C-alpha cells in the first residue's frame, strides 16, 4: 500500500511542473509550431490553372534554389549583415564601455538617450528617416539647395542599402548597448581591484577583463543581429513607396516571399522561399554561436 501511495505522489509531483509550463507550451505551439508546420505543408503543393492544387513534393524548393531573384535578395542581405552588424555592435560596445567607465556623469540620462530610438516603432522610424533622405523634400533636399547639389541622394540605387543600414543602426544600437551594459554590471568588482593593484590601465582593463567577461553577451547580440538582418522587411518596404526605382519587390527574401504571396497569390512558392530563408538563417546563426563558444573555451 505504501509503495502505491509513493508512486502516486511521485506521479502528481511529475505532473505539477506541467501546470506551470503548460500555458507557455500551448502558446508556443499555436504561434510557432503550428504556422511552421502549415508553411511546410503549403510548400509541398502548387496551385496551377489546369489541375488546381496538386502535390509536387520538393519541386518548389528546387525552383527556389535556382531562382536568381531569391539569391539576389539573399546576397543583398548577407552583404548588409557583414557590414551593418559589426558597425552596430561596435558602436553599442563603445557606448556600453563608456557608460561603465565611471567617468561620465548623468549615466541614467545617457543610457536612456541611447536606448530611446529602440522605443520608436520601426515604421515611424523609417518615416522619420525617409523624410530626411528625400531629395525633393526634407534635410537632403535643403542641403542641396543651400550647398548646390553636392549631397548624393540616400534613396538612389547606389546608396539605398547604406541608408537602410543607417536606420537599422540608429534603431538597435541602444538595444545592444543595454545588453552589453547589463553584462558589464555583472562583472565582479574584485577583478577591477586586482587589475588596479597590478597596475593595469584603462585599456588593459577593457581588453583583459571587461571584454572576456561579456563575451557571452556579445555572442547573444551577434546571433540576434544575424536573425534580425535576415528578417529585414519594414525599412525597405516603407522606403519603397518613396524610392520605387531603388527598391525592387525582391529586395530582401522576406519582401520577395511577401510579394509572391500577397501580390502574386503564389502562396506555395512563397512558403518554400520562407522555409529556405529560415534554414539559411539557422545555419549562419549556428556557426556564429559555435565560433563564439570556441572562443570562450
Your description of this structure?
- Helix 3 (68-100) packs across helix 7 (160-185) and helix 10 packs antiparallel against helix 13 (267-296).
- The chain has 297 residues and is an all-alpha fold.
- Strands 1-2 form a two-stranded antiparallel sheet.
- The termini are far apart.
- The chain has helices at 2-43, 59-65, 68-100, 107-119, 122-133, 138-147, 160-185, 189-197, 202-213, 215-230, 234-239, 253-263, 267-296; strands at 45-48, 52-55.
Strand share of the residues? under 5%
Shape: globular
The beta-strand count equals 2
The low-confidence runs, each spanning 5 or more residues with pLDDT under 50, are none
Q: Give the % helix.
A: over 70%
- SSE order: HEEHHHHHHHHHHHH
Going by helix content, strand content and strand pairing, the class is mainly alpha
What value does the average pLDDT take? 85
Major sheet: size, sense and barrel closure?
A: 2 strands, antiparallel
How far the N terminus sits from the C terminus, by CA atoms, comes to 52 Å
Total helix count?
A: 13
**Spatial sequence of strands, sheet with the most strands:** 1-2
Radius of gyration, in Å, reads 25 Å
